[in-house]
C-alpha cells in the first residue's frame, strides 16, 4: 500500500515551494494570502501524496490545487470587495518612467480581473503552460481556457485603454495570437 | 510589447521573499484529514447478494468462544444496520455484544462482523459466537467484504502469501496461493476476488476456481468492485497524478470531476466518494457524472457504505473533529439524510468503523 513519507514530502516542499509561491502570489496579489494559499495547497498535496506515484511531478498537482483553491476562496470570500491591491514593487532595472507606469497599471488591472481569468492568464503567460496544461490545472475544458484568456486580455486592454488610449492595443498580445495551440 | 504582461508578472513574482511555510503543520493537518476520511471509509458493500459457494472448503479451527450477548443479531446484520466498535464491543441495531477480542479493524457482513485483533488474528462473530478464522498483517490489515463473505491476505510464517476468503454463512474457508510474496487482496465482488500479485492485477473466481490476469497497468489502484464494475484510479502518463475510472474493463469511463471512490453501490451503478478531498459526492459509473452531497448541520460529512442500491450511510461531525462525537446517518440518493445513531463517540475515544483497515492507516 502506498504510504505518506513526511521526509520525502518535506524535501519536495523545500525544492519547489519558491516557484509555487510565486504562482500563488500572482493569482491572489497579496503576500500573506499567497502564503496561506500555498500552505493549504501543500497540505492537500500531502493528503494525496500516496497517489502521486512520481513525486518529482507532484508540482503539477500542487499547481492545480493552488489554482482551484484560489478560485474557490475567491467565490467564498468575495475578495473583490474586501482585499487590498498591493502596488507593484519598484524594482525595474533600467526601466524608464513609461515602462514603470505601464507595469503599475497592468498589475493593478490584473488584480481586478475575475479569478478564473486571472488564473488562466498567469498559467498561460507566467507559467508558460500550454492550453491543455492550463485546462488540466484549472480543472476545465480547453475551450474554457481559450475563452477565459480572451476575456481577460480584453478586460486588460479596456482597462489600459483608459490610461494609454489607442496605444493600449500595442501593450498586450492580440487574443488570437496568444491562444495558439 | 507582447512581453509587457510577462515582464510585469516576472517583476511582481521576483519581489517575493521565500515563503514561511510550516511543513510539520501540513503533515499534522494532512494526517488529521486522512484520519477523518478513513474513519468513514467503510469497506466493501454489505448488501450484495449471497452466492452459494462451490469451492471445496476447509474446516475451521475449533477455538470457538461464547460472546456475552445471548440474543441473536441475525436480523440487524441482514438488514445492514450501521455498526461501530469500541474495544471488544460491537454496537448495532441499538444493542451491543462483546466479541471477546479487541476489534482493531473490521467489516460487516450479512451474518455479523469479521475483524482482526492487534496481533493479526482474524475472528468472525455473529453476536453470539466468536470464531478464529485466520491471520493477516497485524499492523496494516485489509479486510474486504461482500454479502456473507470476507477476503483478506494471509502472510508469511514461512509459507507463501495466500488470498483467503471466509464465508460467514457457511463457515467455509478457501485460499489461493499468490505467485509473489508482494500480494494483496484489493476487493471482493460476489465470488470474485480482485488482488494485486506483484505488479499484476488478478481476478480469482471462487465459482470456477480460475485465476485471470487483468494485466500489469503501472500505478493502478483498485478502489472497489461491485456487480462487475471496477472503480479504479489510473495514473497520468505525464505528471504521475491519477484519475478515477469506472467500467467492466480498466480505463473504460473517466470521471474527470471525481476524486476517489470509497464504496460502490451493490448494483455498481453509483460510486460514493469525494469530488475533491473531504468534499462528499456521488458519481454515475456509466457516465462519470458527479452529483454533490450536501448534509446541513455538519462541518464534515462523508458517505462510507451502502444499505441498498438507493441508500447509503455516512457520518457527520463538527469541529473539533477529533473529540466531537460522531453521528451515523442514512441518506437516500437524491434525497435527505436522517440520523440513525447519535453521538456514538469520537475518533479520539477509539471508535472503530467497519472499513476493513486500521483507523490509524
UniProtKB/TrEMBL annotation, chain A:
Classification via InterPro entries: RNA_pol_sigma-70-like (IPR039425), RNA_pol_sigma-70_dom (IPR014284), RNA_pol_sigma-E_actinobac (IPR014325), RNA_pol_sigma70_r2 (IPR007627), RNA_pol_sigma70_r4_t2 (IPR013249), RNA_pol_sigma_r2 (IPR013325), RNA_pol_sigma_r3/r4-like (IPR013324), WH-like_DNA-bd_sf (IPR036388)
Top-rank lineage group of the source organism: Bacteria
Residue ranges occupied by any RNA polymerase sigma-70 region domain in the UniProt entry: 13-79
Keywords: DNA-binding, Sigma factor, Transcription, Transcription regulation
Gene Ontology biological process terms in this record: DNA-templated transcription initiation
Signal peptide range: none
Segments crossing the lipid bilayer: none
A GO term for molecular function: sigma factor activity
RNA polymerase sigma factor 70 region 4 type domain segment(s): 103-156
NCBIfam families assigned to the protein according to its UniProt record, in alphabetical order: SigE-fam_strep (TIGR02983), sigma70-ECF (TIGR02937)
PANTHER family: ECF RNA POLYMERASE SIGMA FACTOR SIGM, RNA POLYMERASE ECF-TYPE SIGMA FACTO
The family this protein is said to belong to: Belongs to the sigma-70 factor family. ECF subfamily.
Protein name stated in the entry: SigE family RNA polymerase sigma factor
Taxonomic source organism: Nocardioides currus
Automatic annotation (TrEMBL), chain B:
Protein name: Uncharacterized protein
Superkingdom of origin organism: Bacteria
Originating species: Nocardioides currus
Membrane spanning stretches: 40-60
Keywords: Membrane, Transmembrane, Transmembrane helix
